[in-house]
TrEMBL record:
Primary enzyme class: hydrolase
Alphabetized UniProt keyword annotations: Fatty acid metabolism, Hydrolase, Lipid metabolism, Serine esterase
Functional description taken from the UniProt entry: Hydrolyzes fatty acids from S-acylated cysteine residues in proteins with a strong preference for palmitoylated G-alpha proteins over other acyl substrates. Mediates the deacylation of G-alpha proteins such as GPA1 in vivo, but has weak or no activity toward palmitoylated Ras proteins. Has weak lysophospholipase activity in vitro; however such activity may not exist in vivo.
Pfam entry (one): Abhydrolase_2
UniProt organism field: Mycena metata
GO biological process, one term: fatty acid metabolic process
EC number: 3.1.2.22
Reactions that this protein is recorded to catalyse: S-hexadecanoyl-L-cysteinyl-[protein] + H2O = L-cysteinyl-[protein] + hexadecanoate + H(+)
Family: Belongs to the AB hydrolase superfamily. AB hydrolase 2 family.
GO annotations of cellular component type: cytoplasm
Occurrences of domain Phospholipase/carboxylesterase/thioesterase (ranges): 28-240
Protein name: Acyl-protein thioesterase 1
InterPro entries the UniProt entry points to: AB_hydrolase_fold, LYPA1-2/EST-like, PLipase/COase/thioEstase
Amino acid sequence: MASSSSARARRIDPILANMDKTSPSQDIVVIPASQAHTASVIFVHGLGQTTFTWRAMILEGLVPHLPHVEWILPQATEKHVTYHRNIRRPSWFDIAALPPGADEYDEPGIAESIRIIESLILAQIHRGVDARRIILMGFSQGAALAIMTALSTLHDLGGVVSLSGWIPLRARDQTIASPNVPILWCHGIPDPEIPLSMAENGVAYLRKHVHDQDKIQFKTYPGLTHTINDDEVNDVLAWLVEQTA
């Protein structure tokens, strides 16, 4: 289902915003629930971004409507990124090109980052949050990581949201441990960095391997490039409200 192209595109710029709490580790920003904490969203930023990049969308578009949700925003460490001529950038794993090549797969980097996200999931579970009320969400490279983690984890998660994401082809050789995870996949048209064809291919793969087809929602946004807009944020909000009710 396509959304209106008239929605205002939101800028993805590093901004300063009032955060309720920063974790003892400066690599993780936590926005506590303003009411009883009954669900958590782990948001994974994209290549070259920081947690600051997404604070506007999360604080303005989502947090006020989800008072029971705690938000966890991990920060990727800086790595030499092939795509950026080996300049150090915040990155979850190495990327040689955008769009990513069919054979591209930084297995050590991906495995390390999946362990990081898994540790955040475990931390929430140890605090008493039901795994079925933990959502993974990410943008671009962060979306790819969120999807790979959600499919490989042994925990029965509440869902995963992909914003302009993809599934690396070689990641599909791995056994899917969680074939019942609810998925919301959102993608702009045209997206020059992660083309729609890559999103459609990823969704087709999921439809083939996820048991319940009704748990997969695929939404496209004409006129939206490699960014987000209000329509997309509203769709994400509606989905999160339903999944964390």
